[in-house]
Structures are given as structure tokens and as C-alpha cells.
Amino acid sequence: MGEVMHPVLDVQRVRKIYGQGETEVQALRGVSLTVERGDYVAIMGSSGSGKSTLMNILGCLDIPTTGKYLLDGVDVSRLNDRQLALVRNRRIGFVFQAFNLIARTSALANVELPLAYAGVKAAERRRRANLALAMVGLAERADHEPNQLSGGQQQRVAVARALVTAPALVLADEPTGNLDTQSTNDVLAVFDRLSASGRTIVLITHEPDVAERARRLIRLVDGRIVQDERLK
Ligand code: ADP
Ligand code: MG
């Protein structure tokens, strides 16, 4: 990719309006933010504040009503559905609250999946998936299936799957929402390591002690950013 001068995320005056007339909802009311490479950002806000709407736009699952969004320098509003799917596969690693691993399929095969979609050959897939599993501390569990792993381990497999394509952005939506304290700590330790190794992470959470682990905290109220604070 060469020398990169642009931010990973560049959100410019983004508005999102659902419905029209009497049922119109302004979910985002002019959100602007940039995230530089290597930053680790937590987004907090109460229910209905627009977090999922913003996540969907950042993740190229939806487009703004007005305003502009550049991901890794690419104006995604100009892309068609097929191109958006490619951007999601190549540039973004998703982590969801519900893990979303494929049942009766080894951890290794789960992690290899995004590489298979990207057309990477089998031997190279295996090599990269093993590296990603080692990164989350699960090298020894590569042939375990999801139901043979704890919740925290499953989420770490999901994190390995998210980072195996070397995405510009790791996007996590309540990744610790289904986990106990110990597993939450294990997963957050992985995010700490990813952050230390230079990954760009955006994490949505309700939990203040999870948000505290990030380098930067953004708070949404009623579709607007009301706080954007550097933590470390
Ligand atoms: P959060 O994730 O912070 O709970 P959301 O982004 O889901 O907030 O929702 C923000 C606002 O937009 C809420 O008022 C919600 O009811 C509304 N909203 C979200 N998605 C839709 C949709 N698909 N159609 C209509 N309204 C929606
Ligand atoms: Mg939500």
C-alpha cells in the first residue's frame, strides 16, 4: 500500500435519517470524527443514541443519508454493493457480541474462512490462520470446535478471524457483552496486544471499565458526539 497519509476513518458531517414524515428518526445528526492508524477508540452511549447506526456505517453495512465517509482513504458512498462487500472482507475485521462462529467446524477452519472468501490458497490460509490463533493465545486449540471452547475462547477465535486478513480496522460491537469477568479480561488483553502491535480498533461498549481500556473515548447522545476524550 505504500506510505499512507490519510486517517483510517474520516467521517464528515454524517447524518442518518430513517423513515420519513411523521415516522422520521434522525439517528445521527451530523457526526464528524477522524481516527488515525493505530488508535483504539471506545464508543459509549445509552440505548437509542445511534451507536449501532454509526457502527453499521463505519463497517460499510449501511451508508449515510448525507455527509461523507472515507475508509482508508476510499469514499465508500461511491461504491456499489459488490465493491462494499469487498471492502468489508478486505479492510474490516468484525467482532460481534454473539461470536458468530460456525458450529461443528474447527477453530482453524473458522479463522481461515475470510481468507477463503478472499481467494487465498489453502497452505497460505492455514499458515496465516495459525498465526492469528497464536496471537490470541489459542494455538493449542486450533482443532477444537466451538462447543469444545469456553465463551471467552470462542470470542478469541472470533478476534483471530477478524484480524487474519490484516484489516485496516477492527470493529467490535459489544464484544464482551456475553462474557464473564475472567473471559472479558482475556479478550481485553487480546485487544491490548492488538493495539500495542499497531492495529486500529473501534469498540462499542456499555461497560465503563471496558471503555477505559481504550486510548480514546467517544460518547454519543441523541445522534451527536458530546465527548471525545484521549485516555492514554
Ligand atoms: P443504539 O445502538 O445506540 O441503541 P441505534 O443506532 O440502534 O442506537 O438507533 C438510533 C435511533 O434510530 C433509535 O431511535 C432507533 O429507534 C432508530 N433506528 C435504528 N435503526 C432503525 C431502522 N432500521 N428504522 C427506523 N429507525 C431506526
Ligand atoms: Mg445498538
Polypeptide structure, described:
The protein has seven helices and ten strands. By secondary structure, it is an alpha/beta fold. Strand 1 (9-18) and strand 2 form a beta hairpin. Helix 3 runs parallel beside helix 5 (151-163) and helix 4 (122-135) packs across helix 5. It binds adenosine-5'-diphosphate and magnesium ion. Adenosine-5'-diphosphate is lined by residues 18-19, 25, 27, 45, 47-53.
For the biggest sheet, the summary is: 6 strands, mixed
Identify the strand order in the major beta sheet. 6-7-8-3-9-10
Percentage of residues in helical conformation:
25-40%
So how many helices? 7
Mean pLDDT: 94
Strand content: 25-35%
Query: Shape from CA axes?
Result: globular
Number of strands: 10
- Residue stretches low in confidence (pLDDT < 50, at least 5 long) are none
Hetero ligands: adenosine-5'-diphosphate, magnesium ion
Order of helices and strands: EEEHEEHEHHHEHEHEE
